[in-house]
Specification:
The complex is a heterodimer of chains A (about 200) and B (about 325).
Chain A: H1 4-7, H2 27-38, H3 42-56, E1 79-81, H4 97-101, E2 107-113, E3 119-126, H5 136-140, E4 146-148, H6 165-168, H7 172-177, H8 193-196
Antiparallel strand pairs in A: 1-4, 2-3
Chain B: H1 2-38, H2 54-64, H3 75-92, E1 102-104, E2 107-109, H4 119-129, H5 132-140, H6 144-175, H7 180-190, H8 193-196, H9 198-212, H10 223-226, H11 236-261, H12 270-293, H13 299-325
Antiparallel strand pairs in B: 1-2
The chains are: A alpha+beta (about 200), B mainly alpha (about 325).
Chain lengths: ~200, ~325
């Protein structure tokens, strides 16, 4: 088998080789190149481009503390524990799946039987200093009890102190107002993404 | 008469010092804003309306910052170098007529500190001395980047000064005087020297970029190569003096270009004065404009450009001017 067809790269008639000049070797050639580059006016193209952008005044700055980009529901920030809409009780049933799946061993869960012989979570801690925010705990949770929130503005001496269990739980007054934010699911897209989406440039 | 002249001169000096120190600050504001808009950003916005008070905030910071003199530096030279830059920049302003003469309360004011008959020579000489600031500061800093910057400064200095001097020789031959006021008056009758000497104009403009160390030739303090060059070890007001010197230099060289090549303030009417300020503003804006648009050249490229391209052109320009004038 010969490689003639394989090596023939002329896929269509529109293709052509870019004409690249050889580098000049003698003084006269170098001189001609200098002259050509000097009078090509490329510097003025650069000047025009920046002036055009200045006149257009199409700035893309987001003044961060006052303005914020909408954050996607898939974002994995500090965890949240949800409550049941019906009874305001904690959703967590103490199954322990999150503790089992946690690959950095940062979740510690302890349960006991309450007076009605029902399982109740007596202790639930996430060591955020170890947590790598992989999202497995939220993915495995059968009750959608533990999810990742969107709060990325944390400040503390150490990451362990970002939040404790009481802080992760949805506050009761939020439940009364009916404003608990439900996790939209793992396929959810960023709000307003439909308007911002652009066609993939597949002109070729 | 003597006392009146003395008082007038002192007042002029104080006014120029105050105005151009303030302008240097406002110049940084404009630089940041213009660069930001060209790069589709907003620039300073938070301090004051449109971020105008950012200048005051920067000034307070510069004045109150601790003045650190690192161990290992050559103390006296290190402390003195910024003063050279700032002082020479303002000394050069003495021979520049900033506006046409006007009458204030029945007293005729000439907005020039000293109309000496060697004005241009004096300005170029003093501005040349100004380069000793970066040179000595960089060499005294005991810092590798500062030393590199000083070496580059020396290389740049011997390159562009040739162009500055030679390019301006042809206009001087035409006018027959070194006083900037004579230059201005010559252009009232004979049209702008820019049209008679376009080559000299472009050459002097290019050399002005090297003189002030602005972007295509910003290699003395090129941030992405040698940190802040000679300013690396400086802090507080000493660094601020370098800064004020640089910006004052930009303003003064804009004045000089406008006076020599673009007709200056013309016949001295109000329109001429405003036109003069507009020309100066354009040249200052062009300094900022190129910073957004053009890349920097290497030191060897600058030397190649100055010695092998611009200097022959300048010499040929002088010869042709001489032949035409004969």
């Amino acid at each position: 088998m010969n490689n003639e067809q394989l090596n023939d790269r002329n896929v269509s008639d529109g293709y052509f080789l870019v004409d690249i000049e050889d580098y000049p070797t003698d003084g006269w050639g170098k001189f001609k190149r200098v002259i050509k580059r000097t009078f090509r006016g490329e510097l003025f193209v650069g000047l025009w481009v920046v002036l055009r952008e200045m006149i257009r005044f199409d700035t893309h700055t987001i003044k961060y503390p006052e303005e914020k980009m909408p954050i996607g529901p898939r974002y994995r920030a500090v965890h949240e524990m949800k409550r049941l809409w019906e009874s305001d009780a904690e959703r967590c049933i103490g199954c322990g799946l999150c503790e089992k799946i946690c690959i950095s061993n940062c979740i510690r869960i302890d349960t006991r039987l309450d007076e009605n012989s029902r399982k109740e979570v007596s202790e639930y801690t996430i060591n955020l200093g170890r947590c790598i925010f992989c999202g497995y705990c939220a993915e495995v949770c059968p009750e959608l009890a533990i999810t990742h929130g969107g709060e990325y503005e944390n400040a503390s001496d150490q990451r362990e102190h970002f939040v404790d269990y009481a802080g992760m739980l949805t506050p009761l007054d939020k439940m009364k107002a009916g404003t608990q934010v439900e996790f939209e699911g793992f396929g959810a897209i960023t709000p307003h993404e439909d308007e911002r989406v652009k066609k993939t440039p597949l002109a070729y | 008469m003597e006392t009146a002249y003395l008082i007038e001169t002192v007042i002029k000096i104080v006014v120029i010092l105050l105005i151009f120190s303030a302008l240097a600050g406002i110049g940084t504001y404009f630089e940041r804003k213009v660069l930001a808009f060209m790069q589709r950003r907003l620039g300073p916005t938070n301090v004051g309306p449109f971020g105008l008070l950012q200048v005051a905030a920067d000034g307070i910071k510069l004045f109150t910052k601790e003045d650190i003199v690192p161990s290992g530096v050559v103390g006296r030279i290190f402390k003195f170098a910024p003063v050279i830059t700032a002082a020479t920049a303002f000394m050069a302003a003495a021979a520049i007529p900033f506006l046409p003469s006007f009458t204030l309360f029945g007293y005729e004011v000439h907005p020039i500190v000293a109309d000496i008959n060697i004005g241009i020579l004096y300005i170029l000489g003093i501005m040349g001395i100004g380069l000793y600031g970066p040179l000595l500061g960089g060499m005294a800093s005991a810092n590798k980047f500062a030393l590199l910057s000083a070496a580059r400064g020396a290389a740049v200095f011997i390159s562009y000064e040739v162009i500055t001097g030679l390019s301006i020789l042809a206009p001087i031959m035409m006018v027959g005087s070194l006083s900037l006021i004579d230059f201005n008056n010559y252009q009232i009758d004979n049209g702008w020297i820019m049209f008679a000497q376009p080559v000299a104009f472009v050459l002097f403009w290019i050399a002005a970029f090297a003189e002030t160390g602005r972007t295509p030739f910003h290699l003395i303090a090129n941030d992405h190569e040698i940190i802040d060059g000679f300013g690396t070890e400086y802090s507080g007001m000493r660094w601020g003096l370098f800064f004020i010197g640089e910006y004052a230099n930009m303003f003064f060289i804009s004045f000089v270009i406008s006076l020599i090549f673009l007709g200056g303030y013309g016949d001295g009417s109000l329109l001429g004065a405003l036109g003069f300020l507009a020309k100066v503003a354009f040249f200052f804006f062009f300094f900022l404009w190129t910073r957004a648009a053009w890349p920097d050249v290497r030191p060897d490229q600058l030397m190649w450009l100055c010695w092998k391209v611009l200097m022959p052109i300048a010499v040929i320009n002088i010869i042709i001017t001489g032949i035409v004038m004969m």
